[in-house]
Design goal:
homodimer; mainly alpha; Arc Repressor Mutant, subunit A; Tetracycline Repressor, domain 2; 2 domains; elongated
Chain lengths: ~220, ~220
């Protein structure tokens, strides 16, 4: 690193290398798990010395945690926007499934990373994913609570419903990914996954509408 | 292998070694993924030569597929029994969650294996898990279809509901496993997971009862 380089340029370069390490790891993780990934494999792809890794991350676990943020932040933002829509239930369900579809088409490696490492061998990453999904559920719960149909619901039940929705999003993303990995991105099977996902969200919504009538 | 050994004894011994290999792999997989497991690690634990492995499995993928069968067969059988019960919805939900709880307490390593390898790095194992869960959903669908409340439902909707239930069982097992891994097997958190799981199944059941009324 040259001392004549202005601070801003140095920062930008450091940021670029950091992102290159994240991208390289994500690529390598398409075929393996984080617990079997070698630090040298990652630096070799980027073309930097193994020691350079430590200027950016303490270890592969810390890199994995950064990948968790990168994987979930965009989905998080988009779903939040859908939840805030002043739309009918049916329309909101269509938008939600469309958001998940786009997410899997545009960021399949991120989706695979989350699905694989959610129960993977690296505890720090498992905990980061659980923490993100937990915050996600809390946000969904806050959005659900503000809707009239939640009147009279206990906080526990709103949270229970929010977790059901978040799990549905995760499972739907996994189902799309399975179809995509089978090379079927624009087929009958892909549309069947979308259709099933919408019906399932619709059934949960019916359960929600009649929850109190059913004496629950 | 001695030629003076009777066939039955030889068969029994072969079966024991095969089971020892499965058990050793399952133990090693508590801390890593199948894609990073070494064949020699497994044979070392069992105390046989690496070449002996091939008398039982073609490769670690084939061993993984055998572990899938072993992991899901008992749960499969028990859930099938619950589905056949002539009980009310509430009671069936309680039994279902109790079955999942017992499964996680008694076979945590099997549950972890399925959760981890469902999206893991070994395609043959991913496909075996998907195939088993698919057969599971088909059985649940057949059981649901025979219940009066399914009158007038399309086969697609019964299947959609069955997949929702199977996903719920898998997610509930994962949630119990997370609590258990945190060392909280008999605490408030464990009971909270059971309670949430029952409420979620109840909400899905309400959705099911009112599905046609809601014009779906």
């Amino acid at each position: 690193m040259s001392h004549s380089e202005p601070g801003g340029v140095r920062q930008a370069r450091k940021q670029r290398t950091r992102q290159a390490l994240l991208d390289a790891a994500l690529g390598l993780l398409e075929e393996q798990s984080l617990s079997s990934l070698g630090l040298r494999e990652v630096t070799r792809v980027v073309g930097v010395a193994p020691t350079a890794f430590y200027r950016h991350f303490r270890d592969l676990g810390e890199l994995g945690v950064a990948l968790v943020q990168e994987s979930l932040s965009s989905l998080h933002t988009t779903v939040r926007a859908v939840l805030a829509e002043q739309a009918g239930a049916e329309e909101r369900i269509d938008h939600t499934v469309a958001v998940v579809e786009r997410y899997v088409r545009e960021q399949p490696a991120h989706v695979r990373f989350i699905a694989r490492e959610r129960h993977g061998g690296v505890r720090a990453v498992r905990q980061a994913i659980a923490g993100e999904l937990d915050r996600f559920a809390a946000e969904v719960a806050a959005a659900l609570k503000s809707q009239p149909v939640s009147g009279g619901w206990s906080d526990e039940d709103v949270r229970m419903l929010a977790e059901l929705y978040v799990d549905r999003l995760v499972m739907t993303a996994s189902a799309f990914l399975d179809v995509r990995d089978g090379g079927d991105q624009d087929t009958e099977r892909w549309r069947a996954v979308a259709c099933t996902a919408r019906r399932q969200l619709r059934l949960i919504d019916v359960g929600r509408q009649y929850w109190r009538d059913a004496g629950s």
